[in-house]
Amino acid sequence: xxxxxxxxxxxxxxxxxxxxxxxxxxxxxxxxxxxxxxxxxxxxxxxxxxxxxxxxxxxxxxxxxxxxxxxxxxxxxxxxxxxxxxxxxxxxxxxxxxxxxxxxxxxxxxxxxxxxxxxxxxxxxxxxxxxxxxxxxxxxxxxxxxxxxxxxxxxxxxxxxxxxxxxxxxxxxxxxxxxxxxxxxxxxxxxxxxxxxxxxxxxxxxxxxxxxxxxxxxxxxxxxxxxxxxxxxxxxxxxxxxxxxxxxxxxxxxxxxxxxxx
Length: 262
Fold this sequence. Notes:
This protein is of the alpha/beta class. Helix 8 (158-169) packs parallel to helix 9. An 8-stranded parallel beta barrel has the order 1-2-3-4-5-6-7-8, surrounded by 7 helices. The two termini are 26 Å apart. The protein is built from 12 helices and 8 strands. It is globular. It has helices spanning 3-14, 30-44, 56-59, 63-75, 92-105, 119-122, 144-147, 158-169, 184-193, 211-218, 232-235, 241-259; strands spanning 18-22, 50-53, 81-88, 110-113, 132-138, 175-179, 199-201, 226-230.
């Protein structure tokens, strides 16, 4: 199964384009992080097609944090996509070790990968059947403009070149792209360049991204093909994670319906 097919399957099962991020940044230890994440999962899985733990917030606790990741994997059902967000990418044998850790040990369906070291750094992540990658094309942070928006000699921004290369490297339906919801114009440009590739759109909520504009810009021709990822906007919502996730799911559905009424 390709990443495209797996995403479509999970979106259909959930009836949602929401991805719940797990970023336990403020917890004192691994046990507290686990409690928080389990509570968020229990409250939100019915509203989301995917779950995205940020590896850094678990790795900061060492072996105990890694053990939490292993246990959390068991709590994500098979009809939800598990994306491990580590933005890995290094020389070939190092990337191969990263891929084994994330796919074979932690059981990710997809991972985020930094493509700036080129084809040989990405290739090991594309050699695991049924697993996929989201290449970081245009991130959601303000500093993304420093490099990822910089023009090449022909005027093409770096993030568009990443998309061109990612499509060339793709063995068939395994490559998607991370594009910050903070830049709807970049989302639209990347969608035009990659009409069928899955897009992972972080940056709504605490980072100020426009949910409706991001969804409008990122939907594929079939009215899907994206995940809108929200972490702090769910975990820290005053109304609680369950109500926040339900509201976000409805907003996404409304934006989707406005673009693709059928």
